[in-house]
Amino acid sequence: MISRDAEKLLYLISLYTGGEGELEKWIKNYALWALIYHGIVEKVFEKYDYTPVTVMWYGVLRIANISMEAEADIFKLRKEGLINKLRLATSKYRYITAYKVTEKGEKYLEKVEPRVKKDVDRVFNPPGVGVPDITIDVKGNPILIYKDGRRILIKVLYPEDVAYSSSPSFL
Amino acid sequence: MTVRDELEQLIWLYKPRFYIFEWIPFDPNIFEEIAEELEAKNREKGILLTDEVDNFPEKPVFIKPRVASTVSVIDYKFNRLLKLEAFIGYPEAVEQAERLGIEIRDYGSIVYGLQIQQVDGAPEVSLDKLARIIFDVIEDTSRLMSSILSLYQRRILNIIYPGYKEEGFERRKYSVVISEKVRVKGRESKNEEILDLLLEEPYVNEVKQIVGPITSYIKRDGYCLIDGSYGLLIIGEVKNVELLSLYASVKSLEIFLEDLLVYLWMVWEKLGDARRTVLKGDVKELKKMRVQLVNTLSDFTLLKSVMGTITYSLDRMESESKIVDNDDLGFSTVFHAVKNRCRTIGDLFESIEREIDGLLMVINTHIEEALDRLNTLTFWLSIIFGSFGLGQLAVAIAPWFMGPVESTIVSSIATLLPILFGVILHLGGGKTK
């Protein structure tokens, strides 16, 4: 059973991947994490939330807000054969993952409810503007660049603070 | 910065304790140096610490930004253990009263422990919020420790984790979360039954926020444990604290080894670039590459010394493990795996060091050859200009003392003589070479 959020995620991946002649376009995991985070903040995804995790980000260890629910859905989409996963080594000797929607995934998307796509398009494919490019600035922050000139900084690398009090504890 | 999204909170822990483990290179000498810095023998209280260095010892005052954190020594065992209590007061977006315990062990295992008293005014904390608190503590303790650690240790951490003191950059640590009471949204369950529930969707996603991808779990006697790739979640009372502590220590050493290995592979990759530069033979690039390789070699020599501290650490962990009887966490499996990895990393250090030395020799030879060519060119240019100058001098002076034919002969000899002298010198020098 593919949830509505998983369908939105599949459609989001399809916007950034696909085949171009002999070549294939894959989306790297850190770019996808940034898109998912932005989708959560912009209320595209209904049931996802995020948590800080130490990850390999653009060649260095950084704390990023990652959605475990989205990770679980990526696993499900792969199990269903709707997306493929590619592992590749970077020149900095860490491994990264990339994803691409499969033909089965594309066919599945033809049948999803229009409002699923509409929700995603609101942020990631606005009518008349198209799919924004995602780039990384010098500080490693992802930025969405829309064709109408809008630039949005995605704050995926900014963990949030929680108010708390604690006392020392020893094992 | 407050939470930007509405959290889907499903699991709450009552006043959980959590311990963050990391491994930092230590040996008995470094341990005692830090004990001295903290005046551990006097059980010093409320010390303000900074990682800044006094670069003007002759000046009577020292000006610096306000110190935010304090440390008090609670216990000290010579060459074995240092227990500290810290208050962390770095500026945060929301109100935090962060007090924690720090255990520094002679074999490099550092444990930061705290018990949550209140989160947003309540004694319960959801796993969503706990994950955020854990990362806050991970980040703050990196800053705090950089004030406590020696320059040697800081340099090593900076090599493996560049930029770790900056906000958002991190070194990996291992967390252990313990709670005796757990509440799941809309469910009433005993601790024994809770494990099955926590491994189901959607609850498992909450658990993964704390421990990472789940690798194993244990359920017995009112106690359940979920082990993940970067943490442990324990519901119930911990009976074997020594084993838990050793297990988390060896896991944190394993994390350090993995990151060290990544650094070694990055150096290996850099050597590939250096080889390609050598093939191109551009002297300017070769000089740049030589500077980079010398810096890498200096870092590398320092990192090589870490292997000694790792061996010491493994020996100490092995002797500590002898008092542990029931190894249900699988400490010995992880321990032997780490020990074997250390052996192969030692060989890798040797081969990379030889490769850097070899490349530096080849680069130096290339640069020397280029310098030789330049020297020859300079030599001949100076001979040519010299002979031209001498010829001109002869042309100017000779007519005063002799006739035009003799003057021409003397001027020609004056021009040719330095060239002849140069040829003799060059051939003679070549033979000597």
Task: Provide a descriptive summary of the structure in words.
The complex is a heterodimer of chains A (171) and B (433). With 171 residues, chain A is of the alpha+beta class. Chain A has one domain: Arc Repressor Mutant, subunit A, CATH 1.10.10. In chain A, 34% of the residues lie in helices and 30% in strands. Chain A has five helices and eleven strands; from the N terminus they run H-E-E-E-H-E-E-H-E-E-H-H-E-E-E-E. In chain A, the strands form four sheets. Chain A has a three-stranded antiparallel β-sheet. In chain A, strands 8-9-10 form a three-stranded antiparallel β-sheet, with no helix packed on it. Chain A has a two-stranded antiparallel sheet with strand order 1-2. Chain A is globular. With 433 residues, chain B is of the alpha+beta class. Chain B has two domains: 11-239, no CATH class; 240-433, no CATH class. The mean pLDDT of chain B is 85. Strand 11 of chain A pairs parallel with strand 6 of chain B.
Report the span from N to C terminus of chain B.
70 Å
- SS elements, strand count of chain A: 11
> What does the largest sheet of chain A look like?
3 strands, antiparallel
Distance between the termini of chain A: 44 Å
SSE pattern of chain B: EEHEEEEEEHHEEHHEEEHHHHH
Top keywords for this entry?
heterodimer, A: 171 residues, alpha+beta, Arc Repressor Mutant, subunit A, 3-stranded antiparallel β-sheet, 11 strands, globular, B: 433 residues, 2 domains, 10 helices
Could you give a short description of this structure?
The complex is a heterodimer of chains A (171) and B (433). With 171 residues, chain A is an alpha+beta fold.
How would the blueprint of this fold be written?
The complex is a heterodimer of chains A (171) and B (433).
Chain A: H1 4-16, E1 18-20, E2 23-25, E3 27-28, H2 29-41, E4 51-57, E5 60-66, H3 68-79, E6 83-89, E7 95-101, H4 103-111, H5 114-124, E8 133-136, E9 142-145, E10 151-153, E11 164-168
Antiparallel strand pairs in A: 1-2, 3-7, 4-5, 6-7, 8-9, 9-10
Chain B: E1 11-14, E2 17-23, H1 28-37, E3 47-48, E4 70-77, E5 81-88, E6 96-105, E7 109-119, E8 124-126, H2 127-148, H3 151-160, E9 174-179, E10 182-184, H4 191-198, H5 203-211, E11 214-220, E12 223-228, E13 231-235, H6 241-280, H7 283-304, H8 306-321, H9 331-401, H10 404-432
Parallel strand pairs in B: 9-13
Antiparallel strand pairs in B: 1-8, 1-10, 2-7, 2-9, 3-4, 4-5, 5-6, 6-7, 11-12, 12-13
Helix pairs in contact in B: 2-5, 6-7, 6-8, 6-9, 7-9, 8-9, 9-10
